[in-house]
Design brief:
Layout (H helix, E strand, L loop, with lengths): L11 H22 L6 H8 L3 H4 L6 H24 L7 H13 L2 H12 L7 H26 L3 H22 L3 H9 L10 H20 L1
Helix pairs in contact: 1-2, 1-4, 4-5, 4-6, 4-7, 5-8, 5-10, 6-8, 7-8, 8-10
Length: about 220
């Protein structure tokens, strides 16, 4: 982009457009490289801004990616509830499969889920964390209502289910993307074969067992 296109935004609409461009650039870079390997300088360059200009819109790179994590929660929650809605999935195995499939289909969201508690929440303002947490609470509540209708889960059981699914998805995604050198090592040595992880099937198995356990406890 040319330099005049990125003069400081003066209106609310221009500021919103600038923020959207920054988020789009961060999203594209995160998908391409992984969240950990994207710097604020990278994002600024992709948008055509100097880093100091970008800091007028976001306080840190972590705030940018925390915004994308909140966006990911809304999008994933809507997709999951669409899968669960209408009572088409009534058994624990089917519900676990819906969780696993919708999470595995969103690798960048899984990456963000792992990064959020590790570093994204630690280098932003308290208000940024508050805003992010309120988004997640709203989405967990919506998912919990579906789980109550389908399985009769209590509020705490639903929260535990979502927390188990999302935290495990984040961890499994990190294990499933070790980088080319480590992947070559894991696949070349049969003793290390367990390190090669497929996110969806393992997540589905664990969540099925978890939900079966909740049903057994309730009975």
């Amino acid at each position: 982009m040319t330099e005049p296109a990125f003069q400081r935004a003066r209106s609310v609409r221009a500021k919103q457009a600038r923020e959207a461009a920054i988020l789009d650039a961060a999203r594209a870079l995160g998908r391409e490289r992984g969240i950990r390997d994207v710097t604020l300088t990278d994002i600024a360059a992709a948008v055509g801004m100097h880093k100091s200009a970008l800091l007028r819109y976001f306080e840190t790179r972590e705030q940018i990616f925390l915004r994308l994590t909140a966006e990911g929660w809304r999008e994933w929650s809507a997709a999951l509830r669409g899968e669960l809605g209408g009572g088409a999935r009534t058994g624990t195995a089917e519900i676990a499969a819906a969780f696993a499939a919708t999470l595995a289909a969103r690798p960048m969201f899984c990456d963000l889920l792992a990064q959020a508690p590790l570093n994204l929440e630690r280098n932003v303002s308290v208000e940024s964390v508050r805003t992010f947490k309120l988004v997640t609470l709203d989405e967990v509540d919506l998912i919990g209502k579906e789980l109550h209708l389908l399985l009769g889960l209590t509020e705490q059981q639903a929260v535990d289910t979502v927390a188990t699914a999302t935290s495990l998805a984040g961890a499994l995604w990190q294990m499933a993307t070790p980088g080319p050198r480590l992947r070559e090592l894991y696949t070349s040595d049969p003793r290390l074969g367990h390190a090669v992880v497929e996110v969806e099937p393992r997540l589905r198995r664990v969540l099925t067992a978890f939900l079966n356990g909740l049903e057994h406890t309730a009975s």
